[in-house]
Structure formats: C-alpha cells, structure tokens
Amino acid sequence: MLRHEFQPGRLVAGFFLIAAGVVYAGDAGGAWEAPWFVAVPLVMGGLCLAGAVGGLARGIRRNRRSGRTDTPGSGPAPGSHIPAAAPHRRGS
C-alpha cells in the first residue's frame, strides 16, 4: 500500500539534481573536467521537464477523478445533440 501518491515531476527533478551533483562530484574527484556552466542547462532543463511532467500527471489525475476518458467512441451517441421532436397536434 502506498503511503502517498506518486509524483513523477518530483522524481524527474530529483534525477536531474542528482545528475548535476554527480557531474560536480566527478569533477571534484578528478575523474573528469566539468566547466562551471554545465549545471545551468542541466538543472534548468531538468526543472522545466519536471514541470511539464508534473502538469501532465496532474491533468491525467484530474481526468481520472472526474470520470472523463479520452478514448475514441466514448462520447455521446451520434445524433444525440438533436432535440426530440414535439408531438404533432391536430388543429380543431
């Protein structure tokens, strides 16, 4: 049983922040040389992607809770938007 709901935006943001930390840890350890500006596109790109993923997940979750589905053919029946005709009255 899950103790909290899954938040994919936070997962993506955490992944990119850890990746930036690994890049600079490798640079500090002497494994490779990383210029100082590597963190800016890595972190900003990760945060933008996390925002997009979070927004998409929120939209999907909202559609599930409201009962709406986006599957083809789940809409109203063809012609259901046409009002029913009133019964014909004969004049007296």
Account of the 3D structure:
The chain is mainly α. It has a domain at 8-66. The protein is built from two helices and no strands. It has helices at 8-29, 39-66. Helix 1 (8-29) runs antiparallel to helix 2. The longest helix has 28 residues, at 39-66. The termini are far apart. The mean pLDDT is 84.
Question: What's the quick description here?
Answer:
Keywords: Membrane, Transmembrane, Transmembrane helix. Helix content is 54%, strand content 0%. It has 92 residues and is mainly alpha-helical.
The number of E-state strands comes to 0
Order of helices and strands: HH
Number of helical stretches of at least 4 residues: 2
Main structural class: mainly alpha
Proportion in β-strands = under 5%
| Overall morphology | rod-shaped
Average pLDDT value? 84
Low-confidence stretches: none
Main pleated-sheet profile: none
User: Multimeric state of these chains?
Assistant: single chain
Distance between the termini: 72 Å
| Gyration radius, rounded | 27 Å
Helix proportion range: 40-55%
Features:
mainly alpha; 2 helices; transmembrane; membrane; DUF3188 domain-containing protein; 92 residues; rod-shaped
Strand-helix topology:
Elements: H1 8-29, H2 39-66
Helix pairs in contact: 1-2
